[in-house]
Design a protein that fits this description.
Blueprint: H1 3-17, E1 20-21, H2 22-29, H3 33-45, E2 49-52, E3 55-58, H4 67-71, H5 75-85, E4 96-99, E5 118-121, H6 124-132, E6 137-140, E7 144-146, E8 151-153, H7 155-161, E9 168-171, E10 175-177, E11 180-183, H8 186-198, E12 201-205, E13 217-220, E14 227-230, H9 236-243, E15 248-251
Length: about 250
């Protein structure tokens, strides 16, 4: 087996299991442990994993990108995700949706035009976009606004979320995998957790670049999610990982 093929399989194993050990990989590929260490070092230098004692874990992103950067990244995939998410908008009498802050959730706004529903959000850009689309009712959650994400977060935001009961929550994330659904900021994590608790149905909107990423805080276990909507580049290994937890997975 060529080194490139072995390294690709190592990355797939990390995505699926969340951690790999040098000794286990050496037995699997029937090579010396030094060969595996060289593979892991090469993948680490490329930023594709993080070396730890005796093995490796998924790579951890560096600085959290701001909203303008996110809005210009993977836009085609995010629009497809939003189009697929529109099929999960609630019907019936006075439906309410909870929209998290983020560059993928904001792509859902054009699909709200002409629908008789209420939007609750912690995102200034989401609220502004919803008003521009003449959504009949838009409620803005209270809290401290993070400049990086333009999202209201904090104690007041969490408290407000404990008092509402939306039909569906559409929530973004920065990482997803065996460690759960993760994000780097503690206040955003607390807000997202409260959103998960508040809604009758929980839908994660995340492009495939988030798969295998591990951020500082797990705000939801994978089994807490009802539906994951991602793009066609989401690997089969991740689809199986999430489906095994009872999640409906959509690749748009």
């Amino acid at each position: 087996m060529y080194a490139e093929e072995r390294q690709q399989q190592i990355l797939q194993a990390i995505e699926q299991d969340g951690r790999v050990s040098v000794s286990a990989l050496a037995r699997r590929f029937e090579v010396a442990t030094e060969t595996i260490r060289r593979d892991l070092d090469a993948l680490s230098l490329a930023g594709l994993l993080t070396r730890v004692h005796g093995g490796a874990i998924p790579s951890r992103s560096g600085d959290e990108p701001d909203l303008p950067t996110r809005l210009s990244t993977n836009t085609a995939a995010k629009r497809r995700i939003a189009r697929a998410a529109a099929a999960y908008l609630p019907a019936g009498s006075d439906p309410t949706i909870l929209l998290d802050a983020g560059s993928t959730t904001i792509e859902l706004i054009p699909h709200l035009q002409g629908r008789d529903l209420r939007v609750v959000t912690n995102s200034l850009p989401v609220a502004e976009s919803a008003l521009a689309m003449n959504v009949p009712a838009v409620d803005m959650l209270p809290g401290r606004v993070r400049g990086l994400t333009r999202a209201a977060v904090g104690v007041d935001t969490v408290h407000a979320l404990t008092r509402i009961h939306p039909d569906v929550a559409f929530i973004g994330c920065n990482g997803m995998g065996p460690a759960g659904i993760t994000t780097p900021d503690p206040d955003e994590a607390a807000t997202k957790s409260a959103m998960m608790e508040a809604a009758s149905r929980r839908i994660i909107l995340a492009d495939s670049s988030k798969a295998g990423q591990v951020q500082l805080i797990t705000f939801a276990e994978t089994g807490d999610v009802d539906v994951l909507i991602s793009d066609t580049s989401l690997s089969d290994a991740h689809v199986h990982l999430f489906e095994d937890q009872g999640i409906e997975v959509v690749r748009a």
